[in-house]
Amino acid sequence: MKKTIMALLVSLVLSFNLNAATDLNTTSQSELEPLTGIGPTKAKAIIEYRKQNGGFKSIDELKKAEGTAPATLKKLSKHISVTQKKKEVPSKGRISSSIDIN
């Protein structure tokens, strides 16, 4: 009984992970490689583009990173996503200062 419950739990967790979109701005090279149309070379190009340009702003920007064909991009778009970095907004009305007492 315990083995059956554990098997169900494991399969449930795996199914959530399979349905989650791969984020181009946070995913590692090894996580990108298994995607349809992406291999080691394209995954490395994606990571390099991300480093040089501060991340992707849209899925379509993937074309610039490594020349993805439109048909491949269409297939990939169901499995990838792009999150935007949140900018820190300074608090209004707060002034910070430091005093060096030497």
What does this structure look like?
The chain has helices spanning 2-19, 29-32, 40-53, 62-66, 70-76, and strands spanning 22-23, 80-81. The model is unreliable at 11-18 (pLDDT under 50). Strands 1-2 form a two-stranded parallel ribbon. It contains five helices and two strands. It has 102 residues and is mostly helical. The chain has a domain at 41-83.
* Largest sheet features: 2 strands, parallel
Task: Catalogue the unreliable spans.
Answer: 11-18
User: For the residues shown, what is the average pLDDT?
Assistant: 76
Over the alpha carbons, how many angstroms does the gyration radius reach? 21 Å
Overall number of strands: 2
Q: How much of the residues is beta strand, in percent?
A: under 5%
Sheet with the most strands: spatial strand order: 1-2
Our measurement of the CA-to-CA distance between the termini, rounded to an integer number of angstroms, reads: 70 Å
SSE succession: HEHHHHE
Q: From the helix content, strand content and strand pairing, which structural class follows?
A: mainly alpha
Range of helix content: 40-55%
What characteristic shape results from the CA principal axes? extended
If helices are DSSP runs of H or I spanning 4 or more residues, what is the number of helices? Answer: 5
Question: What's the structural blueprint in terms of helices and strands?
Answer:
Blueprint: H1 2-19, E1 22-23, H2 29-32, H3 40-53, H4 62-66, H5 70-76, E2 80-81
Parallel strand pairs: 1-2
